[in-house]
Amino acid sequence: MPEYLTTIGLEIHVELNTKTKMFCDSRNDALEKTPNTNVCPICMGHPGTLPVINRAAIEKIIAVGLALGCSIEKHSFFERKNYFYPDLPKGYQISQFQVPFCREGKLHIHGKTIRIERIHLEEDAGKLMHPPTGEAGMPGEDYSLVDYNRAGVPLMELVTHPDLSEAEDVRRFATELQLILRYLEASDADMEKGQMRVEVNLSVRPKGQKEYGTKVEVKNINSISAAAKSADYEVKRQIETIESGGTLVQETRGWDDVHQKTVSQRIKEGSADYRYFPEPDLPPIVLTDEEIEAIRASLPELPAARRVRFAEEYGLPQADVEILVVFKELGDYFEEVVSELKSEDNPLSGEAADYGKLAKTVANWLITQLQPKLFAASALPHDTKITPAAFADFVVRVVSGQVGSSAAQTLLQAMWETGEDPEDIIREKDLAQVSDSVSLNLYVEDAIAQSAKIVADFKAGKAPALKALVGKVMALSKGKANPQLAEEMLREKLK
Ligand code: MN
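# manganese (II) ion complex -> structure
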């Protein structure tokens, strides 16, 4: 069997989160539950109505283009893409064909550069629903319903060059693009909600063959992992078809999540079938350099830049950086906590402070202790009762040894529940670590008295027995003894 090369290009549609639709002032909320409420004569395509361009949608798509290193077309226009489908009330979609707003950008994913051919702006269609036959209160025959809440929602379409070569590239590209869209606040890009829709165009060819193989397009993919799985499935299916002497057809296939496979849907039409022509009801769009530069200047720090900065500025390991970049709000919160720790009235600040170590401690507690609480409560860090200042105070008490590590978890849980100051909680719950030698001595004496066998083991040269004795001290003190000091004291007494 010859070796095969896989070629993948992506077409990604993203709903932009403007307040109103692309060409009218109906509310842009495709998730609205009551059908056909966010509609008006314009997005319903009534004769005689005129569309008006939503400036905010153009600003958002330009921001996306600039973030992806595209060149921006200063002179562009909308066109009509003509086709009939019941979810398209006008009988055509207003889109861009000859001149997209953004061209030739790129996205770096783990050492690979994926070139972006174009990003254009268009309007979304409505949604068809096919309820089960005979459902209560509905006619007893096959029928379909249509909801136009989504019709006319601003939709960005991004097309890559065929630079991806495996399922993992699909996963990485979609994940990074989604993150950038969220940083830009252009879209939540939630695939389960249909806010981002990935189409995988894939072909295989035997190594050495120049021409691309027959291209298949996979649609109806509802998650990033399904996008990657559909790519894997197609590679396998296409190679098997070729190897068994079959013929591949250029077609559109859908992803069947239940059976974890792609299924044929239709034979693809070419762009000539759409009879594109410039939209006569809309003026051409002219952007000035000043307008473009103003959007560039307003771009936030993007994920790639944040990765570099978090590693350099805080010396965090890559795994921590990635979590704080992907969970942006946790990263923002992290920076506020560290900045509190650097403030002058903080007991750990000053020249002698080891900020690298402090930052690592903050990251550890945020990632391992706060993050699970946030996920369980579906909350963002700033929505909780723990302010960054209180969290910094907490870290100070942990680092200075005022609370031991198990008491620290109790303390954090109480802060989470009540929003009280760490100092008050430590007093109320008696969480302070016992480090004074008089109190500690009592626990150590008791531990030795109650553990004759372990003491004998230790004296006989079994070093691990000492850990068991420290454990005994911790148990007797209900976790409050300072374990390092307890160990030193035990070692001294058992010499
Ligand atoms: Mn499109």
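# post-check
The mean pLDDT is 91.
The two ends are 72 Å apart (CA to CA).
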